[in-house]
Design a protein that fits this description.
The complex is a heterodimer. Chain A is an all-alpha fold. Chain A is built from nine helices and no strands. In chain A, α2 packs antiparallel against α3, α2 packs antiparallel against α5 and α7 runs antiparallel to α8. Chain B is largely without helices or strands. The N and C termini of chain B lie far apart (19 Å). The chains are: A mainly alpha, B little secondary structure. Chains A and B meet through α1 and α3 of A and loops of B. Chain A: This is ER lumen protein-retaining receptor.
């Protein structure tokens, strides 16, 4: 475990906690894409299949449980909670996320580290995570006044992947034959997708103006 | 080692 990876995991944790707190306290999911939340729940479900069969460390197990619980809780809030569901921006959250699940599944079948169910599911989850933010970014472009918590959620979600890239660089130079092309390429693609969001987010923060993403 | 062929990252 290196500092970059720990910082990355903590930033990822902060992003889901920020979102869960926002939804739980103000009972609103305005500006939040249900599709991105569903994709993330699927990412964790597909990636953490080995949760009970392969013990890495207490930290690893606890974090997996937290990510699984938080992502499914957020989806539950947005679908089932009588107050929160009414604040869901259904008519603007129209990204056809089914169109990205299938290609990621096919890619997982073609490009994986080992052709076993668990490894295919793992690769699928890596590819899916790379594009899971798309519905949320599209929704942000359509949302007029983006509330701070949602913007912070997306920012931390992007920041965690940037930190993971530093983690991979560090591990590449400190651990012999630490090579994970699948994670590396998908992780870089994922980070690039946040590019313009980061640009406008930092600009709005610097000029102290409301975040606006150009459509 | 076992952890080598498994994914130790989240």
């Amino acid at each position: 475990m290196n500092l970059f990876r720990l910082a990355g995991d903590m930033t990822h944790l902060v992003s889901v906690v920020v979102l869960l707190l926002k939804i739980h306290t103000i009972k609103s999911c305005a500006g939040v894409s249900l599709k991105t939340q569903e994709l993330y729940a699927l990412v964790f479900a597909a990636r953490y299949l080995d949760l009970f069969v392969h013990f890495v460390s207490l930290y690893n197990t606890v974090m997996k449980l937290v990510f699984l619980a938080s992502s499914f809780t957020i989806v539950w809030y947005m679908r089932r909670h009588k107050i929160v569901r009414r604040t869901y921006d259904k008519e603007h959250d129209t990204f056809r996320h089914h169109f990205i699940v299938l290609p990621c599944l096919v890619l997982g079948l073609l490009l994986n580290e080992k052709f076993t169910f668990r490894e295919v599911m793992w690769a699928f989850s890596i590819y899916l995570e790379a594009v899971a933010i798309l519905p949320q970014l599209v929704l942000l472009q359509r949302t007029r006044n983006i509330d701070n918590l949602t913007a912070q959620y997306v920012f931390f979600l992007g920041a965690y992947r940037v930190l993971y890239i530093f983690n991979w660089i560090y591990r590449y130079f400190t651990e012999p034959h630490f090579v994970h092309w699948i994670s590396w390429i998908a992780g870089i693609v994922q980070t690039l997708l946040y590019g313009d969001f980061f640009y406008y987010y930092i600009l709005s923060w610097k000029n102290n103006v409301k975040l606006e993403l150009p459509a | 080692s076992a952890s080598q062929d498994h994914h130790d990252e989240l």
